[in-house]
Amino acid sequence: MMFDTDTLQTLLNLPDLAIDRVVLGERRTLQIHVHSTLEGTHCHRCGKPIDHGYGLGQEIKLRHLPVFDYHTVLVLRPKRYQCHSCEGRPTTSQMLSWYSPRASVTKAFEQQMLLELINSTLEDVSLKHAVGVDALQGILDRRIEPEVDWNGIETLEVIGIDEIALKKGHRDFVVVISAYVNDRLRVIALLPARTKAVVEAFFRSIPKRLRRTVEVVCSDLYQGFIGAAKAVFGKRVLICADRFHVARLYREGLETLRKREFKRLRRTLSKASLDELKNAHWVLRHRRADLNADERRLLNRLFAHSPKLKEAYEACEALTAIYDSRLSKGQSKRKLRGWMRRVTNRKLTCFDRFLGTLETRFEEITNYFVGRRTSGFVEGLNNKLKVIKRRCYGMTSLKHFYQRVYLDLNGYAKFGTVR
Ligand SMILES: [Zn+2]
Asked: How far does residue 53's CA lie from ligand 1's centre (Å)?
């Protein structure tokens, strides 16, 4: 066998199990057959500890975190026990701490999926990890509970508040609350609705001892979230607008202009000139520094036809540069004010919506520069993965057709290997 079981057991990092055998399946799947090393359980009826063995239950399969890039599935037959105190001697299957009843994935895998779902869609995460949409929905359903077990949490410090889109088209959301617990980013709660009332009620449900430990709330620009945080935590807590969400907003402005300009160019340019601009929309999503010589030439060709697009693109790059500089809050305010003036003077109306948000959320947006905190997810995974189902620039093979592309903190598309 290519893995020795001790090493594998360490990699799995799960308690109370021993590995019996490992089967290497198709499509890089590792089936690890395990058995429980824990003795006894509690009777499901009377709750007393029981240890009269009653054989093994039905085989269950639990998806776990990848090992060496292999999809990993744990196969287990739970131990069963009989209660001699209850009438009819009912049997109870033993459950181990690392999975929940009826789950098809381990708790560790569940956490990972929850983190990746933040600001993403079920479809994207489903494609990326080859997990069914139904299984993901099941994870969410199990986790949408009003009660959080606060006992294991000592401090909160930074709370992230984001959302998960349930359906394609971002019509339906659940709210995700994340925090670093014992130095690990964790999803601590899922809320069923995206209203100020629901979020506020959740914040108020945090025990006082923990509420006092909150220093920063990192949110997207949604007014309900910010309003709820302000209402509960007041001035004592720094509320900052997550950088990724700000970037998404100004890049939306560029995208709007891009669509308008392409429409105009399709009317006015010759077929030959248009062909030369093929894939230019893709290049526009990258920062100039990340482009190769061919791509830069393409960008310049496009800008020759659309000076407005050039100005807007450069405005985006200027914002990214502001975010990337180590500025104080005061400095960032001056830089942003300068940016707003330039954009207004040049009549770059594609940023109107963003300018409005910048104006109303100026404090929260510049609070980012105080501690450079981003919501847990962005910090933790450092990128947003997105499956782009279209053919990408310069990529012709089928392999690249489903190339995974992620957006970095500044909202630029980047290629990356999926972990
Ligand atoms: Zn019993």
From this structure: 14
Which pair of tokens denotes residue 62? Answer: 């639990």
Q: What is the whole-number distance in angstroms between the Cα of residue 125 and the centre of ligand 1?
A: 42
Going across the sheet that includes 29-36, the strands are 17-25, 29-36, 70-76, 60-67
CA of 44 from ligand 1 middle (Å) equals 7
Rounded mean pLDDT, 340-357: 95
Handedness of CA 263, 269, 273, 275 (dihedral sign): positive
Residues with beta carbon < 5 A to ion ligand 1? 43, 45-46, 83, 85-86
Q: Domain boundaries in the chain? A: 5-99, 109-241, 244-379
Distance CA 173, CA 191 (A): 9
Distance 18 CA to ligand 1 centre (A): 28
51 C-alpha to center of ligand 1: Å? Answer: 11
Q: CA 398, CA 389: separation in Å to the nearest integer? A: 11
Instruction: Please tell me the distance between residue 94's alpha carbon and the centre of ligand 1 in angstroms.
Output: 14
Query: What is the distance in A from the centroid of ligand 1 to the CA of 101?
Result: 19
Most confident of the following: 67-76, 147-156, 185-194, 393-402: 67-76
Please state, in angstroms and rounded to a whole number, the distance separating the CA atoms of residues 61 and 10: 20
Nearest by Cα to 252 from 418, 115, 414, 407: 407
Give how far the C-alpha of residue 149 lies from the chain's centroid of Cα atoms, to the nearest Å. 22
Domain boundaries 109-241, CATH class: alpha beta
Cβ pair 224, 380 in contact under 8 A? no
| pLDDT tens, position by position, 366-415 | 998 987 776 544 443 333 333 332 323 333 332 333 334 455 555 565 54
For the residues 326-355, what does the mean pLDDT come to? 95
CA of 58 to the centre of ligand 1 (A): 21
The Å distance, Cα 75 to ligand 1 centre, comes to 28
Are the CB atoms for 291 and 284 separated by under 8 Å?
Answer: no
Tokens 């290519």: give the residue. Answer: 2
What is d(CA 187, CA 164) in angstroms, rounded to the nearest whole number? 12
Tell me how far the alpha carbon of residue 36 lies from the centroid of ligand 1, in angstroms.
Answer: 21
Residue 34 Cα to ligand 1 middle (Å): 27
